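Problem: given the chain below (380 residues), write out its structure.
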Amino acid sequence: MSPHAGFNDLPAEVGEEIVGYLVDDDQQQTETDEPSALMLKKHEKNLKNFSLVCHYARALALQLLFLYLKVEMQTTSVSQGTSKHNADAHLQGLKGVMAFIQRNNLMRKIRALTLLFPSGYQLGQHIMADFKYKAIKMVVQLNPPTLTLMGYPALLGNLLDLTVDTRDEWAFGPRLQIIRLRQNHLRSRAETSAIWERPTSLMHSRPWDEALFNEGSSLEAYSRYEFHTMTTPSVLHTHCGWQWWSHLPAVLPFLQHFEFVAIFPLYDHMVEVSRAIQSLPSLVSMKTQLTPSKNAKYNILEDRERVGKAEISDVWSETTNSYRFLAQSISKRSDEEARLRRWVSADTTTNVDEIVGEYLEDDWVLVEPGVWERSDPTDL
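Solution.
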């Protein structure tokens, strides 16, 4: 009797498909949960455990471990007056990653690149310029389909050449934020302008098709006096003397899908976010989530420490008004201006469909709970 075939006898393609399920949860977590350093380590832990099963499993797991590359920067802060030796430590980290990739023939094979900047990570202005240059160069050379940045708002703003307004950051508490940029297909040089030949920011280092901004929770701010006057620390709400979002058409001309996650955001902040959304010339679909995910590990409104002195009625009022403004701003655009055809709300705990339906024009139809679609005027 011939022995039964085992896992080691599976074709490589089948084995890779099986192992791929170990990393699928990572994307959904990034989209719906409050940002934390642990959320991006789940697939890494699963893959490392799987790699211990046998030599064949290790070979399969290692391929994905390095194709989904996560670079966690050192937490040693570097200020303006530190020595060159300490400053170089931050730059050597990126150099070391690139050297590893080149040694193992991973160039142009990286499917996703994540740069994680943990609590306490700081860079002086002169070091930031060098760091940005090397980070942009890495992204251009690797050309990953997905780039994820996780860090605190001010640092993310520096990486994207945006000045984040942090004057009220104390009221929101320390919170990591996530920016995920994705290109769905590679474009020829003829399809892009010279801006991608020598990019000055990670935002326009590649011709991105999709963007996700996960800003975490603003619940703590509701405990402050006159919370509605406070400025949310965010790369989408910058401290500039000009309307920064008017530059987005040049920076993100190909962006077709936009996702925004912010748990109980302030209304004034959503006004700025809406302006950014409306300025994107190629936007076809968007997804919003302004309340905790139905799959959240715990109910944030039952956490007394985080709720503090906040009035729950204020929290829901700001959320409701935010959806009203989004719907109104979308409806105000003419057919010639608006390409947006699909709006998905991930909020299942509120009467979003009723709120949105009250302000959207008649050419928007609720096709299923939380999903609105707009008919193409050329088809009418």
